[in-house]
């Protein structure tokens, strides 16, 4: 049991630590990051209930549409809502990279408890693949979400803010939908998922650097 819990928690903590330690401008209070992570953990339960209701009560004509709505739309939208209402409006959200930190914290809280449930049911044999694919993909979808939340927060105009906010929720849903589609579309999913994840990491790390660059400009332009 201890081994299963450790294997379930370790990937999420490791990835969150990586993105948190990349915040070299004005690091967020660790208490805020932990709180946001816990919100992500708690989010699993209402999402699971909603997904169960949708799966049993809704008459889906397409497995793909059902999977996209029940997984990609529901999970990413509710994670976005948690970040928006608990972190986006908080005084500690004071530079663009903070969006990435808080979005990743919520997503990895969600992914960590989900991962624990999977490992308790299926055992440690799938722990490596769970860490490599579902857990890290949740974090990478969150990087895109957080990057555009950061751009929205410091956009300067209401119109730009609204545009970036729409992107911050729409893009993670789209990426999550593509991720799910790869597993549904073909038995040879490994051929597609490897380049897809490589591009996610590559572009995600570029978003991290851009958030830092934008944050540096934002901080230097503020009156002292």
From TrEMBL:
Signal peptide per UniProt: none
Membrane topology term: Multi-pass membrane protein
Protein name: Protease PrsW
Family: Belongs to the protease PrsW family.
Alphabetized NCBIfam families for the sequence: intramemb_PrsW
Natural source organism: Brevibacillus aydinogluensis
Enzyme Commission identifier(s): 3.4.-.-
UniProt KW keywords: Cell membrane, Hydrolase, Membrane, Protease, Transmembrane, Transmembrane helix
GO cellular component terms attached to this protein's record: plasma membrane
Functional note: Involved in the degradation of specific anti-sigma factors.
Gene expressing this chain: prsW
């Amino acid at each position: 049991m201890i081994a299963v819990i450790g294997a379930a928690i370790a990937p999420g903590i490791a990835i969150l630590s990586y993105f948190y330690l990349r915040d070299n401008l004005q690091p967020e209070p660790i208490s805020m990051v932990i709180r946001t992570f816990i919100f992500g953990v708690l989010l699993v339960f209402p999402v699971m209930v909603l997904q169960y209701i949708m799966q049993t009560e809704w008459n889906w004509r397409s497995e793909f549409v059902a999977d996209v709505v029940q997984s990609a739309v529901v999970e990413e939208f509710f994670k976005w809502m948690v970040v928006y209402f608990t972190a986006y409006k908080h005084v500690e959200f004071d530079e663009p990279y903070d969006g990435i930190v808080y979005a990743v914290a919520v997503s990895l809280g969600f992914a960590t408890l989900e991962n624990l449930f999977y490992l308790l049911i299926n055992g440690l044999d799938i722990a490596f693949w769970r860490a490599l694919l579902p857990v890290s993909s949740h974090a990478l979808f969150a990087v895109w979400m957080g990057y555009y939340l950061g751009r929205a927060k410091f956009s300067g105009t209401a119109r730009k803010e609204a545009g970036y906010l729409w992107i911050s929720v729409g893009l993670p849903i789209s990426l999550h939908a593509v991720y799910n589609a790869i597993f549904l579309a073909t038995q040879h999913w490994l051929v597609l998922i490897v380049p897809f994840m490589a591009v996610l990491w590559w572009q995600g790390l570029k978003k991290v650097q851009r958030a830092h660059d934008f944050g540096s400009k934002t901080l230097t332009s503020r009156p002292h």
